[in-house]
Structure formats: C-alpha cells, structure tokens
Amino acid sequence: MDLSIILPVVNERDNLRQLVPRLRAVMDREGLSYEIIVVDGGSRDGTPEIAAELGARAVTERRRGYAGALETGFAEARGEYVLTLDADLSHEPAFAAKLWRARSEADIVIASRYTRGGTAFAGITRSWLSRLLNLWIRRLLSMPVRDLSSGFRLYRREALQGLNLVARNFEVIEELLVKAYAQGYRVFEVPFTYFPRESGRSHARLLRFGVDLMRSSLGLWKLRNSINSADYDERAFYSLIPLQRYWQRRRHRIAISWARGAARVLDIGCGSSVIVQSLNNAVGMDVSMGKLRFLRRRGIELVRGSAFALPFCSGTFDCVISSQVIEHIPYDEVLFREMDRVLQPGGTLIIGTPDYATIGWQIIEPLYGALLPGGYRDEHITHYTRESLTGLLVKHGFVHEETAYVARSELIMKFRKPAVSERRATAAAAAARAVSAT
Known about the structure:
The chain has 438 residues and is α/β, with parallel strands linked by helices. 40% of the residues lie in helices and 20% in strands. Helix 1 (13-30) runs parallel beside helix 2 (47-53), helix 5 packs parallel to helix 7 and helix 6 packs parallel to helix 7. The longest helix has 19 residues, at 206-224. The radius of gyration is 27 Å and the shape is elongated. The N and C termini lie far apart (78 Å).
C-alpha cells in the first residue's frame, strides 16, 4: 500500500463528512493505493459511525491524548508512507498531493507555514505566539526547520520506527520530528497556507501547548547535545561556542593535512564529522546507522561495521584515520591489528584520543561533563596516554612520525606502516641482536 492517512478526531462528525470524500478524490487523482484511519478519542457525536459509513477504518486510541492517537494510527498503518493531518479542515486536503510529490526530497515532508512562501490566516495573538514558540524551539534544539509545530506531514514509515515517544499531547509533534532527525532522517518543508477550522471547537490550547512544549524540550535538548544525535559532530564544527568550534577545527586541520594526497582513505568511526566530508575518495565507517544515514546526503561512500572486524580486504587503504574512537570502546589489541591489516605497506595511520596524562584533559573532561551531561565524557571507557599509545603501535610494527595536540589535551599522532622490505630488515636486525646477546 502506498499511503496510510491518519486522522486523530474527537467529535468531528460534520467535518469528516467533507474531509473524507475530498481526501479520496485527491488520492484517486494521484493514482495511489491508500487507507484512511480515523483514530477516535472518545467522541459522543457519532464520529466513528460516520467514519465507517464513509469507508474509513475507525479505531479507538490506545492511550489518552493526541500523542496516543498518533501512536495508535502509526501502529495500525500499513502504507509505505504515513500522512497525518487535522480533521477540522484547517489542513487543506488537496495539499496532500504536494506533500506526496515531494516525498523524494526527504524522509519527512512538512506542510510549513513559516518557510518562505508559506502563511497562516490566524488571529494576531495566536499567530505571534506560534511563531515565537517555533523560533525558540528551533534555536534551542538546533533544528534546521522553520515550522516544527505543523502536524500536516508525510512520513516515510521507516522514520517512525523505534522513536520511543513519551509526550502525551500536542508536544508530540515536535518530539516526533526531533527524534527522527536525531536518527539521521531528512526533513523538507513545502510552503503551505493555513486556514482556521471551518466548524466545531478546537481541542488545542495554545498556552497549555506552549507549557507542555517547553517541558518536553528539556529532554529533547539533552538528546540533541548527546553523541546519540546523528549530526552531533558536524554541529560541533559550526558551533557558536568558540572553544568547541576551535577544538573541532584544530582536529580537522591536523587530520586533513596529514591525510592530504592519499589515494584511498578509511575513516573508522567517522560519525558525522567534517573530516570525512573533506576527504577525497574516502570511505566512512561507523557502527551507528543514524550517523551514516545523516552522512548519506553528502555523497560519501559509507559502510556500517565494527572496528574489531573491519569489513575490508587486507591492504585496501593507503591512509587510515581513527579519531576519537578508541577511548569509546573496550581495550583490545585486535583494534590495532585490524588497522594494520587494512593498511597498505608504506601507508599512513592517523590516530587521535584524549591524553589522560595531561593536566589540561584532567581539567577539561569533568568541566565538559558538567556542561553537557550525556556527551562524550560519559562515553570514555578506555584511557590512553601518549606513552601508552606509542608503545602499543610500535609493538604492532608502526613507525612514529609526528605528534600534535589540540589545546595541549587531545593527542593526535601520525604513524607509518613500514614497507615489507623494511619490516624484514627490522626483524632481521632484532634477531641478530638476540643472537649476539646470547
């Protein structure tokens, strides 16, 4: 089935009489296979009966509130795409065709009142309060969307899976969008003209909605500033916080300078960083599907895989980058053996991690954890120093070439994998020293 249309309703009998036939006309004109699901929240005016009479499927919400109605509709939906809109005719049914035609632009397509070309015919107080709420949420959560509170949307059903919604009422509209975006799904806005409802009484209370939204946004702020957010690394590169921006750009400059001229580069644990975006002929690898999903729009070759078993043939790359990865995973020498295996003889290894022997990092990490709870600090489970990391890599046959620091705290080192002849000569010299010692 192409499309499932979800209509959350409470006492919308009269509006459904107009809306359902108009929706059917639009869907038939577009040649779509579709279903209309009316999710009832306890109507007393015969709304479910009218819905069934009009050929829609009427179901009762499984959890009280607007959020529960949407959850019920999502669970019932069988279409590849899911369309949500209000049943009060403030969302023009014919506009659904525009959303459908824009589906290739993104995973979530929004009928937007506040993007260029959109407008809303509403009272001055309601209009300005809505705009201010959207502006505040957009800035707080760093969301590249102008109309976060529009419930008129087309979703790719995949983007709705596993979101773990906690909202109860209309604030679920923002929660859906933020959590899907944090998993790397793309969002696109289509200009839309909003009209007030044609009949009946609105069930939305803007002031209450604003309070619920501000309360909900605190939890969403933690998500947007955690490493679980797909665009975490890229946002840090463009951060308004001077120290964070400097840190990311200094790391980027070192890695890109050392990797310059390499023919084939592997970025292990690439996340959504600008490093892999700046490299030519690079492959980005990460365990997080959300971060790979986010990077997909950049035209980069991407692979989901584990650093403990790199999914590449031996000697595939002449440069391997592992920046801010090894401190996030348990210590195992197989990590370094795998880097050695996929790197060509004579190739370059660029590896970065906090240096826990420095005073700078011992001060910065607790401070960072206090300012951004849930950020990288809580994920650092293996601690390295310059001395310990150098010893490990030399043990695996690498030759140290350069060392650089970010703010004298984050360690970035460049190693070379010796050519086969060089390794043989080194091994022979070591054997000769052992013989002479005996």
